[in-house]
Amino acid sequence: MSPITTHFAGLSITQLAEQFGTPVYVYDAAMIRQRVRDLAPFDVVRYAQKACSNLSILRLVREEGALVDAVSAGEIARALAAGYAPSPQDHDDDAIRAGHHPAIVYTADVFDRASLDAVLEHDLPVNCGSPDMIDQYGERCHALGRRRGVTLRINPGFGHGHSQKVNTGGEGSKHGVWHTDVADCVRRAERWGLRVTGIHMHIGSGTDMTHLGKVGAALEQVAQQVGTSVLTISAGGGLSTPYRGDEPSVDVAAYYETWNAVREQLAASLGHAVNLEIEPGRYLAAESGALLTEVRAVKRQGSVEYVLVDAGFNNLVRPAMYGAYHPIGLAPANADSSGDAIKTPAINPEASRERVIPQSAIRNPQSFVVAGPLCESGDVFTQKDGGFVEARPLPRPAVGDLLVIGAAGAYGYTMASNYNSKPLSAEVLVENGEPRLIRRAQTVEDLLQHEI
C-alpha cells in the first residue's frame, strides 16, 4: 500500500467515507471474483465463510461457482439465504463419483444442539473433527433410518501459522481427529451405518510448500488407512496472504500440483477417481477488503507519537489478538495530488489555510503508532504478537484525514464486537465502479433493542 492512498477499487476514499461514514468496511468485488478463478484447477472451491460471511459476498462467490462450508447453525442459515441448496445427491456415492459436489458442508469439532438440529433438518453432509461428533450424528441418523457418509478432519500431529492462535495442528490445537484415532472413528461410523467418504486436513494459516508436502503425505497415509470408501480429499485452506509489501503471493499452481500429486496417487491405489477440494477463506477475502477510519487526534506521549482513529479492535481485532500486520495508508481529506505536493483545504475548524503535504514528507515519512478509541491499552493497530507496540512510517496525518487499513477483508467484520457499546460498522461492496451498501451500520438503538 502506498503511503498516500487516495482511491479504493477506483473510487475516492474521501467520497466513500462521506457517503457511508466511518469506520466502514469496503470490499472490491472484482478481486474476490479473481481469487475464486485463481483456484479453478481444483475440482471444488469451498469457501470458508467464517472469513467474511455477508450475504452479498456469499452470493458473489456462489455466482463464481464456489461452494461453501458452515461451522454453525447461523452459517447454515446464511448459506441457505444466499441461495445454496442441499440435494439428495449430496449423499449418493455414485453421484459424487460422477462429479456432484454438495453445496453446503457442515464442518466443526463439535455439534452444539442447534447445529446438529440444523444439519439433520437440511440433511447436510458433515465433516467431523472429533469422535463424539460421529456418535452424535450417527445416533440421530440411525433413528431416522438414514445411512450417510461423513468426512473426517484429521490433526496430523503438527501445525503451522504466524501465531500459535492460528495454528490448527499439533497437540496445542483443539482441531481435528487425532491421527492415531482414525481407526476408532471408522469403527464408530460403521457402528451407526455411516461410511467415511472423505479426508480433510488443515494445519494452519500461511502454510509454506515444505509444510504442504508433509500435510499431503500425512493425508495420503490416513486415506490409505480408511480405504476405498474415500471419494474426496480436502486440502483445507491456509493459503498465505502477502500482508507486508515484501511478501510473495502464494504460488497457486505449485499448491495445486502438490495436492494433485497426492490425489493421483490415491486414485491409483484406491482404484477410482478422487475429488480434490480446497477450502479458502482468507485467500478469497483478505486482500479484497479495507477498513476506512477517520483520524480524530494526533498526540505525543514522551518520544512516541500516536494517531488515534475512530476504529478500534471492536472493528478489527486481528492486531490485538494475533499481533497481525495490516498495511496502512493515509488518505488526506479532500486531497488534490496534482503537481509536486498533495494539497488539501483546511480540515480543522481552527485552520484558516490549506494544508500542503510535500513529496519530501511522503518520501521520508515519520513514525506513528496507530490506535483506536477504546478504553483498552491493547487497542492498537500497530503491534506485534504479545502486545508489543511498534511505530509505523506515515506522512504526518491531521485530524479529519482518513487511514486505510488494508488486507482487512478476512476475519475483520466477522470478528467484530460491540465492546464499549460501539455499534458495528457498515459494509460496502464496490462492483463495476459502483459502491453498494451491503450492511447498514448499527445504531445505538440497535444495541439496546434486545435488552430487557
UniProtKB/TrEMBL annotation:
<keyword id="KW-0028">Amino-acid biosynthesis</keyword>
<feature type="domain" description="Orn/DAP/Arg decarboxylase 2 C-terminal">
    <location>
        <begin position="25"/>
        <end position="409"/>
    </location>
</feature>
<dbReference type="InterPro" id="IPR009006">
    <property type="entry name" value="Ala_racemase/Decarboxylase_C"/>
</dbReference>
<comment type="similarity">
    <text>Belongs to the Orn/Lys/Arg decarboxylase class-II family. LysA subfamily.</text>
</comment>
<dbReference type="Pfam" id="PF02784">
    <property type="entry name" value="Orn_Arg_deC_N"/>
</dbReference>
<feature type="binding site">
    <location>
        <position position="318"/>
    </location>
    <ligand>
        <name>substrate</name>
    </ligand>
</feature>
<feature type="binding site">
    <location>
        <position position="411"/>
    </location>
    <ligand>
        <name>pyridoxal 5'-phosphate</name>
    </ligand>
</feature>
<protein>
    <recommendedName>
        <fullName>Diaminopimelate decarboxylase</fullName>
        <ecNumber>4.1.1.20</ecNumber>
    </recommendedName>
</protein>
<keyword id="KW-0457">Lysine biosynthesis</keyword>
<dbReference type="GO" id="GO:0030170">
    <property type="term" value="F:pyridoxal phosphate binding"/>
</dbReference>
<dbReference type="InterPro" id="IPR022643">
    <property type="entry name" value="De-COase2_C"/>
</dbReference>
<feature type="binding site">
    <location>
        <begin position="279"/>
        <end position="282"/>
    </location>
    <ligand>
        <name>pyridoxal 5'-phosphate</name>
    </ligand>
</feature>
<dbReference type="Pfam" id="PF00278">
    <property type="entry name" value="Orn_DAP_Arg_deC"/>
</dbReference>
<dbReference type="GO" id="GO:0009089">
    <property type="term" value="P:lysine biosynthetic process via diaminopimelate"/>
</dbReference>
<feature type="active site" description="Proton donor">
    <location>
        <position position="375"/>
    </location>
</feature>
<keyword id="KW-0663">Pyridoxal phosphate</keyword>
<feature type="binding site">
    <location>
        <position position="411"/>
    </location>
    <ligand>
        <name>substrate</name>
    </ligand>
</feature>
<feature type="domain" description="Orn/DAP/Arg decarboxylase 2 N-terminal">
    <location>
        <begin position="43"/>
        <end position="286"/>
    </location>
</feature>
<dbReference type="InterPro" id="IPR000183">
    <property type="entry name" value="Orn/DAP/Arg_de-COase"/>
</dbReference>
<comment type="function">
    <text>Specifically catalyzes the decarboxylation of meso-diaminopimelate (meso-DAP) to L-lysine.</text>
</comment>
<comment type="subunit">
    <text>Homodimer.</text>
</comment>
<keyword id="KW-0456">Lyase</keyword>
<dbReference type="InterPro" id="IPR022653">
    <property type="entry name" value="De-COase2_pyr-phos_BS"/>
</dbReference>
<feature type="binding site">
    <location>
        <position position="322"/>
    </location>
    <ligand>
        <name>substrate</name>
    </ligand>
</feature>
<feature type="region of interest" description="Disordered">
    <location>
        <begin position="155"/>
        <end position="174"/>
    </location>
</feature>
<dbReference type="GO" id="GO:0008836">
    <property type="term" value="F:diaminopimelate decarboxylase activity"/>
</dbReference>
<feature type="binding site">
    <location>
        <position position="282"/>
    </location>
    <ligand>
        <name>substrate</name>
    </ligand>
</feature>
<feature type="modified residue" description="N6-(pyridoxal phosphate)lysine">
    <location>
        <position position="50"/>
    </location>
</feature>
<comment type="pathway">
    <text>Amino-acid biosynthesis; L-lysine biosynthesis via DAP pathway; L-lysine from DL-2,6-diaminopimelate: step 1/1.</text>
</comment>
<dbReference type="InterPro" id="IPR002986">
    <property type="entry name" value="DAP_deCOOHase_LysA"/>
</dbReference>
<dbReference type="InterPro" id="IPR022657">
    <property type="entry name" value="De-COase2_CS"/>
</dbReference>
<feature type="binding site">
    <location>
        <position position="238"/>
    </location>
    <ligand>
        <name>pyridoxal 5'-phosphate</name>
    </ligand>
</feature>
<dbReference type="InterPro" id="IPR022644">
    <property type="entry name" value="De-COase2_N"/>
</dbReference>
<dbReference type="InterPro" id="IPR029066">
    <property type="entry name" value="PLP-binding_barrel"/>
</dbReference>
<keyword id="KW-0210">Decarboxylase</keyword>
<feature type="binding site">
    <location>
        <position position="376"/>
    </location>
    <ligand>
        <name>substrate</name>
    </ligand>
</feature>
